[in-house]
Amino acid sequence: MTSSLADVASSNATLRAFLHGLPGVDRVGADQRAAMLGTRSIKTTAKAAAIDLAIRMVDLTTLEGADTPGKVRAMCAKAVHPDPGDPSVPKVAAVCVYPDLVAQAVESLGGSGVKVASVATAFPSGRSSLDVKVADTALAVAAGADEIDMVIDRGAFLAGDYLKVFEEIAAIKAACGQAHLKVILETGELATYDNVRRASWLAMMAGGDFIKTSTGKVQPAATPSVTLIMLEAVRDFLATTGRKVGVKPAGGIRTTKDAIKMLVLVNETAGEDWLHPDWFRLGASTLLNDLLMQRQKMATGRYAGSDYFTLD
């Protein structure tokens, strides 16, 4: 963070002045641009490359109360070999689990290169004390998590207590150690596109390595419009500070068509440099199977049966 932006975080009043001084979002214009980019058609070899890139960007996720070690082992096996019958299929970027299942994921993935991400900070509500949130993060990091997906306190943000949100993100970032921090904004609860832009900047200023749309538990989640706004934010933040931040849309991305629309948004908004798993991820639990089905269709001319790939 540049010295001028560091000064901004000195008080709630200065943070509010800065965040509310950001350019307003033209809601109609954002929706229209996102819709227009969603009509772009990608064919043949470009589509095949886009499918493989999307697979490499997937954070394969299970975040249910009924999750078991066996389910995590199976998901990790799929993350490394999405289609055991086709070794040319790339592995996914990461698996994402609750903190108490991180050790199981680390053991199952050992040396594969697939990262282990863990939600933390009283996910998905974010309603707990800072001490509990830091302890939740420390538990996941100690178990071997490479990445932490934290959720902001939307109540504090919507009440205008930006300094509390900033300080919590900074504290969680410190607790991450060498792990990367993804900051979940829960855009479906932020009410306005202006708030999405403000929350994006706040998360980046506080040290977030990624900004993420959603927990997947609230709708609307990863809409093209909010993803567009967040991509604009990381582009502008890089121009202002020299620091590059990633983006992760999550929730509601279920089809290959959805994924490719996101890749077009990235290319046309932030630029080609973000078209890499280090800078763009797709949070999903069901997307991978559709990508595999479309990939097989392009290779063989026919779709696999619905029971060909494992259910996550």
From TrEMBL:
Any single Gene Ontology cellular-component annotation: cytoplasm
Enzyme Commission no: 4.1.2.4
Protein name, entry field: Deoxyribose-phosphate aldolase
GO molecular function terms attached to this record: deoxyribose-phosphate aldolase activity
Catalytic activity of the protein: 2-deoxy-D-ribose 5-phosphate = D-glyceraldehyde 3-phosphate + acetaldehyde
Keywords: Lyase, Schiff base
Pathway per the UniProt entry: Carbohydrate degradation; 2-deoxy-D-ribose 1-phosphate degradation; D-glyceraldehyde 3-phosphate and acetaldehyde from 2-deoxy-alpha-D-ribose 1-phosphate: step 2/2
